[in-house]
Structures are given as structure tokens and as C-alpha cells.
């Protein structure tokens, strides 16, 4: 008998599994520091310090390049200063990491 074709959601799981295998290992200490930097970036962005927020988000992503939320936050920060190419790129990175997260698509559309 024929092998059935995988369903769309199954293909997403396969793609994500392959992507996660090729992603670099992230140390737990780096994740913790990246989370702190993300929070600092969020506070700076809320206060209107967009370029400083982008810097913190960038530092966080250097430590944890798997964090789709930081990519989305930095995308929003870039959008707010009309850096549309960077905003689009970050939104796409968020989608690549977590394809079922709607906010990544929202950022991409806005860029």
C-alpha cells in the first residue's frame, strides 16, 4: 500500500525538528542573562529609549539566538524608528524559530 503524504502540521513539526537540531546549543546561564537583557530592553523601549532597547535585544540574541520573542521585540523597536528592512528580517527570524506564533506574522506584515 501507498504511504500517505504527511499532513501540513506534520511537515511543520518535521521542519522545526530539523531546525532545532541545526541550532546552536545555548547554555542555561546564557539563557538567564539573555532573559535579563530582554527585560532591560523592554523597560528601555517602554521609556522611549528605542536605540538602547535594540542594543539590549541584540545582546540577548547573541546569547540566545533561539528566542523568537526577542526577535519580535527587536522587530517592533525597528518598526518604531522606521528601520523596515531590519524589522522584516527579525520578524522572519521569529517565524523561522516558531512558525505557529502569530505575532511573528503580525510584525512581518507591519514591516
Give average pLDDT, whole number.
84
CA-to-CA gap between the ends?
47 Å
Instruction: Count the E strands.
Output: 0
Helix fraction?
A: over 70%
Instruction: Please state the structural category.
Output: mainly alpha
- Please report the number of helical segments: 6
Main attributes of the structure:
single chain, 111 residues, mainly alpha, 0% strand, globular
Describe this structure in words.
It is a single chain. With 111 residues, the protein is mostly helical. Helix content is 76%, strand content 0%. The chain contains six helices and no strands. Helix 2 (28-46) packs antiparallel against helix 3, helix 3 packs antiparallel against helix 4 (68-80) and helix 5 runs antiparallel to helix 6 (102-110). It is globular, with a radius of gyration of 16 Å. The model is unreliable at 6-14 (pLDDT under 50).
Compact summary:
By secondary structure, the chain is mainly α.
Describe the secondary structure blueprint for this structure.
Elements: H1 8-22, H2 28-46, H3 50-63, H4 68-80, H5 84-97, H6 102-110
Helix pairs in contact: 2-3, 3-4, 4-5, 4-6, 5-6
Amino acid at each position: 500500500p501507498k504511504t500517505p503524504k504527511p499532513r501540513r502540521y506534520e511537515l511543520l513539526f518535521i521542519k522545526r525538528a530539523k531546525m532545532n537540531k541545526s541550532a546552536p546549543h545555548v547554555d542555561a546561564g546564557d539563557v538567564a542573562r539573555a532573559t535579563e537583557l530582554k527585560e532591560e530592553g523592554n523597560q528601555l523601549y517602554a521609556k522611549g529609549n528605542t536605540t538602547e532597547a535594540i542594543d539590549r535585544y541584540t545582546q540577548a540574541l547573541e546569547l540566545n539566538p533561539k528566542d523568537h520573542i526577542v526577535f519580535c521585540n527587536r522587530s517592533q523597536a525597528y518598526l518604531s524608528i522606521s528601520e523596515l528592512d531590519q524589522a522584516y528580517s527579525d520578524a522572519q527570524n521569529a517565524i523561522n524559530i516558531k512558525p505557529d506564533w502569530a505575532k511573528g506574522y503580525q510584525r512581518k506584515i507591519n514591516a
